[in-house]
Specification:
Layout (H helix, E strand, L loop, with lengths): L1 E5 L8 H18 L3 H11 L3 H5 L6 H10 L10 H4 L7 H22 L1 H22 L11 H14 L4 E8 L1 E8 H22 L5 H22 L1
Antiparallel strand pairs: 1-2, 2-3
Helix pairs in contact: 1-6, 6-7, 6-8, 7-8, 7-10, 8-9, 8-10, 9-10
Main location: membrane
Membrane topology: Multi-pass membrane protein
InterPro entries: Peptidase_S54_rhomboid_dom, Rhomboid-like_sf, Rhomboid_protease_S54
Length: about 230
């Protein structure tokens, strides 16, 4: 199933959503011109590498060794990755999927919150998602990149604010057809799917940050719900 659009038009132009998408696209096209070693260095410097911040808190020799191996590649300011990781993507499917979901859900949430509040919500949601991911990957030497944590927060807010909406979804079952799925149903099962995949990923070692999705969605439900009650 692939979501195409929702059934609630926004009343105002979602300028911040458009700017966020444009910023992600610009960064991605910069990534394309990099060769493989440069791209890996870019990921390590502008993605969040948990071990960069936690190696001092472990006495395990293997983490000390891993840190010494990757440390020469990391030269960026340690604060920058907390924001920049939300604008870095690992491939075409990564950025297209993220930007498509942001396009579907972001306009209505921005409309409800207002442009400035939405921007703060988006960035803080990404940081909360990062924190949730960090709890399950405290000494990870792999960079966390992508906007999916922040976008999951947007989806969590949509779940609370626009539960009555419908998501027009493309379903391919022998032949393709469209179906309207209630947003509350679509997003509930999406959220449960992230929890299931996150649990399996802890066993199989998948590279997808499912727990960041879970954390972002929870943040969106809590904070999005409060903003909704404040404005209505």
């Amino acid at each position: 199933m692939f979501p195409l659009y929702d059934t609630i038009p926004s009343r105002k132009r979602p300028y911040i959503t458009h700017i966020i998408i444009l910023a992600n696209v610009i960064v991605f096209f910069y990534e394309i011109i990099l060769n493989e070693p440069q791209l890996q260095a870019f990921f390590f410097n502008y993605g969040i590498v948990p071990l960069r911040y936690t190696w001092r808190f472990t006495s395990k020799l293997k983490y000390q060794i891993i840190w010494k191996e990757i440390q020469p590649f990391i030269v960026s300011n340690p604060i920058v990755p907390f924001i920049s990781h939300m604008f870095v993507h690992g491939g075409w499917s990564h950025i297209l999927g993220n930007m498509w979901f942001l396009w579907i859900f972001g306009d209505n949430v921005e409309d409800r919150m207002g442009h400035f509040n939405y921007l703060l919500f988006y960035l803080s949601g990404g940081l909360f998602a990062l924190t949730f991911h960090w709890l399950f990957n405290f000494y990870s030497p792999y960079p966390l990149i992508g906007a999916s944590g922040a976008i999951s927060a947007v989806m969590g807010a949509y779940f609370i604010q626009f539960w009555y909406s419908k998501i027009v979804t493309l379903v391919i079952w022998f032949i393709p057809f469209l179906v309207e799925i209630p947003a509350v149903v679509y997003l509930f099962f999406w959220f449960m799917f992230q929890i299931l995949n996150g649990t399996l990923a802890d066993i199989t070692g998948s590279g997808v940050a499912y727990w960041a999705h879970v954390g972002g969605f929870i943040y969106g439900m809590i904070v999005g719900g409060r903003i909704r009650r404040y404005y209505l």
